[in-house]
Backbone:
């Protein structure tokens, strides 16, 4: 009893102590509006300054708050130089040049601060994607490293909605034929010092990347002298653009080699691909008048309703206040993995009040982590005191800035921070406050008319997706605050849904995201074939029935997860394998890449990867493991083990690099790669080294060499089974290009012809009804 009493007394003392600390902390926080006259910005915009004393560390700083209604003004995420960076003054000037009447600017979300060594390379590289006024202005296609976190959508009427996870997938078609995995980045560069940091995939650049799409405005110019390549200049047609849930349609104007610079027109874009890329031949095959289409889909099902409808979307780096609740009062609260709620820094935030009005907020302070700055707890308390019910923090520290159109002198200028030397820090993106009367926001009559026509055509549809888009379109038409971006968004989504391709596109996105261990190899093979047919229907000229047939076939195989029995044969799920991120991509966290002949192995970031050198073996007709080692962060170790002339992978070799990180799937991936033994051969599944393309659920594994292949053992794995007759069937139908050795093993009846007789005999053998 005595021990319990002591324990209770101690617990009570601790609780009282904690309460005392909390009460003192709360009492220490103060916020006082400065008495000197606030600057007059413009009608309907209230600018004020406050002296804030931290309730956490006692620091005292000046903070600026800009409050405004949404009747005459609109909040717009913006990137003046997507893929690069600019200070707020430059963002302001670039936005004005586009036709936005800008009242104020604050800095945006987090971005890369690495100017050269990162595979993405560019100071200001956005960690996620950005949608501005209805159009995707910056994104990475299926890039694992781009998934920084959730996204926040800001509608033209000032409402905010967020999703915890979002990932975009882009499909690109040349003359109706899919360029599988071809599109890499939208208005993003991936290196500024050497060609080795540029990937083999296509780069999309339009007017959002600045006057010179391949020039880094901060440091080194990116010219064809650094990265030789081809540029496909295209013109957007039919009032289309890059919209989530829509398709951009374009016509090729020209294809040129090693050109550089020049302003890209508002209705134009360039597809750039490096000369050494396996996709280069597809670029040079294009000619003036050819068609290019690019569709953008949300792959996270729960996020689609928000991201497809959002006309302005940016990375959400952390809620401070949500629905009137201060989230920072929880001591364990983190707005993201980088900063706690007691982190000392300059801060930028924005929020909404109960009456629907908005607020921009920035604070003064010292460098991040230093004394003399307030915390995120203080930011939340200050904005709640000013009436905000929802608050989101943006990037802080040296990025925190506020720029206004009029600082009381009739000229634009900075209000935060006070230290003039920090004004020029470039940031990847920003948030604009613009007048609704801006030229760029004005609606296009032709777009409005088509939206109304499509609503009329679609109003009798029973399709759920069509109904959802029609509802969104009606909301846009009925809202006087709708902008051209709103109309463009619903126009392309209506076209997409009514074409019968919306569901097919969503299904294809699901197929692209499959995990191979959820399926049997038999089903995966059929799934890949169904995907090819779906791709042809989606990217080409197909009627509603053809689209539906392609959808049904793909859906059938996509739903056959797990162990399945088909025609009396059981097919079990794949139990082991190494997933593939892509080919000839500079390795980042979690990547698993194959590097083909001609690639410079010193420039693909093998430093912290399991590195496997394979050489072609004629007898096995496969690549055989020659060396397997860990990079251990030492380029010299890699160069010594590979021992290539000038570090260039020779014609008879390939190199595999598998990165591993604790706690991620890549850890298991690298563990499997580390077990590959000298003399084993590489078995590819859904991977074509010749075209450097990958299929649905592609993966690879290392297996022991099989004995002398027998007739009927088409895939050469030492057994004659259902996989072999499926390959034979594909060979007969010419949907699979077999090697000479495979065709020899397909000739089951030895008549020197591979035809349906061979397929029937092999199938009967596998089913046990025939022996040969």
Residues:
């Amino acid at each position: 009893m005595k021990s319990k009493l002591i324990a209770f007394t101690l617990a009570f003392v601790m609780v009282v102590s904690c309460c005392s600390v909390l009460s003192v902390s709360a009492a220490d926080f103060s916020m006082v509006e400065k008495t000197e006259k606030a600057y007059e910005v413009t009608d309907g915009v209230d600018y004020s300054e406050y002296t804030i004393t931290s309730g956490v560390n006692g620091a005292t700083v000046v903070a600026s708050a800009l409050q405004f209604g949404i009747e005459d003004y609109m909040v717009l995420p913006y990137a003046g130089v997507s893929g690069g960076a600019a200070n707020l003054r430059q963002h302001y000037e670039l936005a004005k040049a586009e036709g936005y009447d800008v009242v104020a600017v604050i800095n945006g979300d987090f971005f890369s601060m690495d100017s050269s060594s990162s595979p993405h390379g560019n100071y200001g590289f956005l960690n996620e994607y950005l949608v501005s006024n209805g159009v995707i202005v910056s994104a990475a296609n299926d890039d694992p490293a781009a998934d920084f976190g959730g996204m926040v959508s800001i509608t033209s009427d000032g409402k905010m909605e967020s999703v915890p996870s979002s990932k975009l997938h882009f499909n690109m078609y040349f003359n109706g034929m899919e360029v599988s995995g071809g599109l890499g980045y939208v208005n993003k560069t991936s290196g500024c010092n050497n060609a080795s940091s540029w990937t083999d995939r296509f780069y999309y650049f339009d007017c959002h990347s600045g006057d010179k799409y391949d020039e880094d405005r901060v440091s080194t110019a990116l010219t064809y002298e650094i990265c030789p390549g081809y540029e496909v200049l295209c013109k957007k047609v039919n009032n289309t653009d890059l919209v989530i849930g829509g398709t951009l349609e374009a016509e090729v104007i020209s294809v040129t080699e090693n050109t550089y610079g020049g302003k890209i027109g508002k209705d134009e874009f360039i597809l750039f691909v490096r000369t050494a890329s396996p996709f280069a031949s597809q670029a040079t095959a294009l000619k003036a008048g050819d068609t290019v289409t690019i569709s953008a889909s949300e792959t996270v099902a729960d996020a689609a309703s928000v991201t497809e409808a959002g006309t302005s979307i940016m990375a959400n780096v952390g809620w401070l206040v949500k629905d009137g609740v201060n989230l920072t009062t929880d001591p364990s609260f983190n707005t993201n993995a980088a900063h706690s709620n007691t982190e000392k820094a300059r801060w930028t935030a924005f929020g909404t009040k109960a009456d629907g009005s908005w607020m921009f907020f920035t604070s003064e302070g010292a460098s991040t982590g230093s004394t003399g700055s307030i915390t995120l707890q203080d930011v939340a308390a200050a904005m709640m005191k000013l009436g905000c019910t929802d608050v989101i923090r943006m990037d802080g520290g040296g990025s925190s800035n506020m720029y206004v159109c009029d600082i009381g002198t009739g000229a634009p200028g900075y209000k935060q921070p006070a230290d003039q030397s920090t004004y020029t820090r470039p940031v990847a993106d920003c948030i604009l406050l613009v007048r609704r009367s801006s030229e760029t926001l004005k609606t296009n009559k032709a777009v409005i008319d088509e939206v109304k026509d499509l609503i009329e055509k679609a109003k009798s549809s029973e399709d759920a997706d069509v109904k959802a888009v029609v509802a969104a379109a009606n909301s846009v038409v009925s809202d006087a605050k709708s902008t051209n971006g709103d109309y463009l968004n619903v126009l392309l989504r209506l076209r997409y849904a009514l074409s019968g391709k919306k569901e097919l596109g969503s299904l294809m996105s699901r197929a692209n995201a499959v995990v191979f261990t959820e399926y049997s190899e038999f089903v995966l093979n059929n799934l890949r074939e169904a995907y090819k047919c779906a791709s042809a229907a989606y990217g080409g000229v197909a009627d509603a029935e053809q689209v539906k047939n392609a959808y049904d076939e793909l859906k059938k195989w996509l739903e056959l997860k797990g162990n399945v029995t088909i025609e009396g044969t059981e097919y079990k799920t794949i139990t082991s394998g190494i997933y593939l991120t892509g080919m000839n991509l500079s390795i980042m966290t979690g990547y698993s890449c194959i590097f083909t002949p001609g690639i410079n192995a010193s420039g693909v970031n093998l430093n912290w990867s399991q590195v496997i050198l394979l050489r072609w073996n004629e007898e096995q007709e496969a690549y055989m493991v020659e060396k397997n080692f860990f990079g251990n962060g030492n380029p010299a170790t890699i160069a010594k083990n590979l021992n290539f002339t000038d570090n260039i992978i020779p014609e008879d070799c390939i190199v595999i690099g598998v990165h591993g990180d604790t706690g991620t799937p890549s850890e298991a991936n690298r563990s499997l790669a580390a077990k590959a033994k000298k003399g084993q051969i590489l078995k590819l599944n859904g991977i074509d080294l010749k075209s450097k393309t990958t299929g649905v659920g592609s993966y690879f594994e290392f297996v022991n060499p099989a004995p002398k292949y027998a007739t009927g053992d088409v895939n050469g794995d030492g057994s004659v089974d259902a996989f072999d007759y499926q390959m034979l069937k594909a060979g007969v139908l010419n949907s699979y290009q077999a090697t000479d050795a495979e065709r020899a093993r397909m000739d089951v009846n030895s008549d020197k012809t591979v035809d349906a007789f061979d397929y029937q005999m092999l199938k009967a053998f596998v089913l046990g009804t025939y022996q040969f």
